[in-house]
Amino acid sequence: MFNIIEIEALESLKKALNQLNYPVPSEIKLEEPPNPQMGDLATTISFQLAKELKKSPMEITISILGALESPEIFESVESKGPYINFFVDYKKFSRMVVEGIDENYGQLPRRSKKIILEHTSANPNGPLHIGHVRNAIIGDSLSRVLRAAGYELETQYYVNDMGRQIAMVVWGLINIGDDLESYGSGEKKDHQIGKLYYQVNQALKENPEMKIEIDQLIKRYENGEDPDLNEKFKFAVSSCIDGMRTTMQNLHINHDAFVWEGKFVRNGSVWDIVDKLKESGHTKQNEVLYLDLEDFGLEKELVLTRSDGTSLYSTRDLAYHMEKSEKGDIILDILGSDHKLAIDQIRIAMGLLGDKSPEVIFYEFITLPEGSMSTRRGVFISVDDLMDEAIKRALNEIKKRRPDLNPEESDKIAREIGIGAIRYYIARLSPEKHIVFKWDDALSFERGCASIQYAHARAGKLLEKSEAFSEDEVTIESHWTPENIEIDLIRTLAKFPKTVEESARIRRVHNIAQYAQDLANAFNKFYKSTPVIGSPYENARLLLVEKSKMTLKNCLELLGVSAPESM
Question: What is the pLDDT of residues 420-449, one digit of tens each?
C-alpha cells in the first residue's frame, strides 16, 4: 500500500522532469524522512541532477516544484532546502489503506519463477537440537514469505542415509540391539536413536578398530545388494526422521518433500557426475579422485570418491543440486556458516557441469548461556526439551496474569506463547548474528513475541465489546480526520506489502519480525490513547482495529507464530 505513495511521487516527478527537458535518472531515489514533520517521502533528485545540469541543487528543486503537479493523494509537496518532500493527505490515504486490507493482505501477485528451498536437513542420528533449530526456523519462515511474495515454492529436507553417522547407528542395531525401546522406553524414536548413537561412540572410543566394520557397512549399503542391511538402514533413518517430523510439526514446520541421498547412488547420477567432471579436465587422481580447484582460486580440492571407490557426501550433494537445478528456477539453501568452503566448491563444480549454482543463506550458530552442544558427546538440548521449557515458563506467567482461566485455556495459550517465543526470538535477528538464547528476553510480554500476540488478542477483545460492529456494514465517516496516533498506525499498516516484497528480495525474515513489533507498538499506542467505543468516530476506529488485527495475524503467520484470540 505504501508503494502507491511512491509510485504517485515518482510519476509526478518524471512528468515534471520531462516538462523541464531535464534528464530522467534510471533510479529516482526516494526515502522516508526520519521525522514525519518533514513529510512522508523525500527525494534527493536535485542532488542527482546537479552535476549533469551544472546547476545548484536548490535551483533544480525550485524548477521541479514549479513544474510538478501534485497527485491528489498528497496534501502538499514542499522543499526542505534542496530536498523535495511529499506530505500525504491522510484523510484520503487512510480510507485507501483501510479499505484495501482483507484476509489476504500482504499476498503479492504471482511470479513465474519456482524456488526449491532446502532447509533443516539434520543428520538422522538423534533428535533435533538447538543447534539445528535456527536453520529450520529461518528456512520455514522464509518459505512462507516467498510464497506470500508470489513465488511457486517447494521445501525439501535432504536426508543423509549414507553417511558414517548413520552407519554407526546401524552397527549399533546389529551389535548392541535393535529394540529401540531398550534405549529409552516410551521416548520418541529420534531420542532413542540418539542414545544408541551415543553408545556406539563410546564403544568406538574403547575399540577404534570398529571403524573398519563401519566402513564395510557403508560400502555394502552403497552396493545395495544386501536386502537385510538395506532394511536396517531404512529402519534407522525412518525411525529418526519420524521423530524429527513430529518435533517440526509442533514447531509449525512442514516440508513438501524428503529427498534421500541414497537415490542418487542407486539411479547412477552420482557416477554420471564423476564422469562429466573427469571430462572437464580438472580432476586428478592419487589415492582418491578429486577436483583440483587451484585454477578457480581455491587451495582446497573437492574429493569425489573414497580410496575404495565409494561415493562421498560431496558427490551425492552435487547430484542433489543437479536435480534441484532441473526442477527449479532458483535454488536456495539454508546452511551454517561453517559450510562456506563447501559451497564455494559446489558452485565451481556446478559451473563445470553447466547447471545453476545455489543461493545460500548462511547463519551463525545459536547457543544457550550454558555453552555448546554435541550429539556425539551426548551433550545437547533437544528442540523437544526447548519447547517443553518454553511452554512451562509461559504457563507460569499466564497463571500469574490470568488466574481466571481454566487449565485447558491456560495450556492452549501457553503453547501458543511458548512456541511463538522460540520462533520469533530466532527470526528477529539477521542470520549473520550469533544468538545466545535467553529465556527472559524470549518470553517477555513487553518486548518479545508475546507482546505482539497480546496486541492481536487485545484488538479481538475490543471488537468483542462492540457487539453492533460488523465490518460489512461499516464505512469510514467522511468527516473523520485521523489524529496523529491513528496516522502512525495507518502509516505502519500501509507498509506491510512493501515489507513482504523487500523480505523476499533480500531473502531475509528479520525485517518481518521487526515490522510485527513496530505494528504491535503502533497499535498499543493507539489503543491506550485513542477512545474507540463511544467516540464520535467509533465505526472508523473499530474498522482500524479490525484491520490491525488482520495485519498482525498475517504477519505472525509469515513467522509461523499463532495469533491467540485471548491472552
Answer: 999 999 999 999 999 888 888 888 877 789
- In terms of DSSP bridges, do strands 257-260 and 283-285 run parallel, antiparallel, or are they unpaired? unpaired
Q: How many domains does the chain have?
A: 3
Number of helical H runs and strand E runs in the chain: 21, 14
Asked whether the beta carbons of 236 and 170 are under 8 A apart, the reply is yes
In a domain, 362, yes or no: yes
The sign of the CA dihedral 154, 302, 339, 216 is positive
Same-domain check for residues 263 and 236: yes
Domain boundary (39, 68, 88) is at 88
Shared domain check, 247 and 159: yes
Measure the CA–CA gap between 207 and 74, rounded to whole angstroms: 78
Which residues, in sequence order, are CB contacts of 82 under 8 Å at separation 6+? 44, 46, 47, 56, 57, 58, 60, 61
Residues 246 and 338 grouped into a single domain: yes
pLDDT at 380: 62
- In the listed set 88, 106, 136, which residue is the last one of a domain according to the structure? 88
- Whole-model pTM: value is 0.92
Q: Which of helix, strand or coil describes residue 489?
A: helix
DSSP letter assigned to residue 368: B
Q: Is the pLDDT of residue 270 over 70?
A: yes
What tens digit of pLDDT does each residue of 441-491 get? 888 877 789 999 999 999 999 998 887 666 655 566 665 677 888 999 999
